[in-house]
Amino acid sequence: MTARLRESATPLASAHDLALVDLDGVAYKGHLPIPHAAASLAAARDGGLRLVFVTNNASREPEDVAGQLTALDIPTGADEVMTAAQACAALLRTRLEPGARVLVVGGAGLVTAVESAGLVVVGSADDRPDAVAQGYAPDLGWSDLAEAAYAVAGGAWHVASNLDRSLPTARGFAPGNGALVGAVTAATGVRPDSAGKPSPTMYRLAVERAGAQRPLVVGDRLDTDLAGARSGGIPGLHVLTGVSSARDAVLAEPGLRPDFVGADLRALLEPHPVPVPADDGWWECGGRAARVADGRLELDRHGPRGIDVVRAACAAAWDAVDAGRAVDPQSVPDLGA
Predict the structure, then answer these.
(1) Where is the signal peptide (predicted)?
(2) Are 12-56+198-269 and 85-194 in the same CATH fold?
(3) Distance CA 3, CA 104 (A)
(4) What is the pLDDT of residue 54?
(5) How is domain 85-194 classified at the CATH fold level?
(6) Which of 191, 194, 264 is nearest to 223 (CA)?
């Protein structure tokens, strides 16, 4: 499997009709704005690009997410938010008929989504639920996880809103829903199905709801946002304002590689040149160059680093790996653009 950076001769905002935008690390960081995010999204909207904010968070209602974005100068309606809770409910309905019983282990957003799908929320494994829907909520405890384990061990279908092992907070990374799901899996030996990224379920639902023809995923995490984009066949833009770094992109395996890379959301408003091969194994982009020689990544030493050297480094490293040549991770520096 090969995956290369794509070229866009026109700004991405005009080349696509819908942007599926991740939240934390892209539109905001915790409760703080990310520089250039609000202005860039406003400019993209003014140019005709529709936005849907897609989040693996299943604990919050779409209205709450929209309110937070609006307070950060990104005016958003609840219909422009797609949560993992909504995707989880949609996945449940692929096997369950209306009226089926579901034990919800999670927050209010997941309860609302499951009920809105015509399913009946129950509170105990003793209610013999047909399925367990599990999502993150900060007040979940041992008794909640135990109830889920009892139900799953009794034959209930286990569906997780997402399998994110970590959750970014203002103080650092805390255990995410994947860590909590792992406790139930350890107790039962049953691996759950998952509705959240990197499954492309949410992306497909959002695209169908919007009737879009040329969607674009915008995310900061290669293992969720961009992996989901690639598995769903949707172009993905990796912005360097969140979890995954430029160095991570250079070292990414094919299934996690982005189609485009940008420093921040201003990348929506810019064309994206594609690196091209040159002499002696160099790959050039925007006057910057990189190559892999004897298993080590080399960068030209002229000019500031910037995003073009990241693109060149991605092209050089990916080409080497796809040709069966190893790249020493120690040779890849921090390429903060």
Answers:
(1) none
(2) yes
(3) 38
(4) 96
(5) Rossmann fold (3.40.50)
(6) 194
- The structure tokens 């957003």 sit at 109
In the block, residue with structure tokens 């990241």? 310
Structure tokens at 234: 């949707």
Q: C-alpha distances in angstroms, 83 versus 8, 49, 254, 299?
A: 29, 20, 27, 40
Domain range summary for the chain, segments of one domain joined by +: 12-56+198-269, 85-194, 276-331
Catalytic residues: 22, 24
CA angle 135, 136, 140 (to 5 degrees): 110
Q: Which residues touch 258 (CB under 8 Å, ≥6 apart)?
A: 5, 222, 226, 229, 236, 237, 238, 249, 252
**Which pLDDT belongs to residue 39?**
98
- State the pLDDT at residue 73: 97
pLDDT of residue 123: 94
Scanning the structure block, which residue is given the tokens 């693109």?
A: 311
The contacts of residue 328 (CB under 8 Å, 6+ apart) are 295, 296, 297
Q: Are 74 and 66 in contact (CB under 8 A)?
A: no
Query: What's the pLDDT score for residue 112?
Result: 95
Give the whole-angstrom CA distance, residue 229 versus residue 215.
10
Nearest to 250 by CA among 176, 178, 330: 330
Q: Residue 211 corresponds to which tokens in the numbers above?
A: 């009737």
What number of residues does the chain have?
Answer: 337
Tell me the per-residue pLDDT of 143-201, one tens digit each, with 9 for 90 and over.
999 999 999 999 999 999 999 888 777 788 889 999 999 999 999 999 999 989 999 98
Q: How does strand 18-21 pair with strand 50-55?
A: parallel
User: Homologous superfamily of 12-56+198-269 in CATH?
Assistant: HAD superfamily/HAD-like (3.40.50.1000)
8 A C-beta contact, residue 161 and residue 137: no
Q: Which helix (H) or strand (E) holds 260?
A: strand 260-262
